[in-house]
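Suppose you are handed a protein chain with no further information: no name, no annotation, nothing but its sequence. What can you learn? This example shows the usual starting point.
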Amino acid sequence: MKNYNVTEIKTLVDSCKSALIVVPTMSVDSIGSALGLALSLIKAGKSAKVLSLTKPDQNYSKLSGLELITDSYNPADLMVTISYPLDQIDQVSYNDDGGKLNLVVKTKSGAAKIETNQIAINNSSSGADLCFMLGDESPLGEKASMVNSGNWIFISPTNVAKSWAKATLIDPDAPFSEIFTFLLPMLGLSLDTESGKDILIGLRVATQSFSVNVSPESFEAGAICLRATQPETPKSAPVVDATPIENIERPSPQPSFNSTSVTPNPTFTPTV
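A reasonable first move is to predict its three-dimensional structure. Written in structure tokens, the prediction is:
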């Protein structure tokens, strides 16, 4: 079991409400890991998207969460986040007020008022309050400038330093899928059937079915993901005998014999 120093990463993850996972170089390993992270974040109650400028083809069709992948990026996007229960919101709309855009959020009858301190406006390049960069950003071309704003976590199997990263995790001895197998539980994020499957697929491809570039931790990571993909087996109900105890037939006691009380058989006298 690997033991990463994730104190800074966990602090950032715990405090975020939305995340963007950027994959500069597409591979089954990197996309599977990114989707596994995104699905785990969503299960923890956060919103998450995966940005890949290359669209996945049929080689990625077995991965879960492909709908979370986007190839569009606009640094001018604006996101308004309202920390308010969705089941108390009745309608969201907008109108044109003399050339000014009004966003209108109507709450349900009897619902509490939305306070100003519950509203956050994010005009950073990512549109999320936490971003993950999986590998070097240079393949993004001019879009690599997105790292100049926002809170970034840099995760890579290549030992390089990034000044823009608020937290960094480097493991030169492992593919992304192995890194995330051990990282997610350390962050308090769970591996379930879908996220475990995605990371396991990435791990199998990265190691050519555990035949190259493997270590004991590679097999351990595979076992962890495989266990996560298994459906929970319901516990068998205890066998209950419904027969009342007083109706259970007890075996008859064996008779005891006393040599002084045994009556011998009468003598048989044949008739002549």
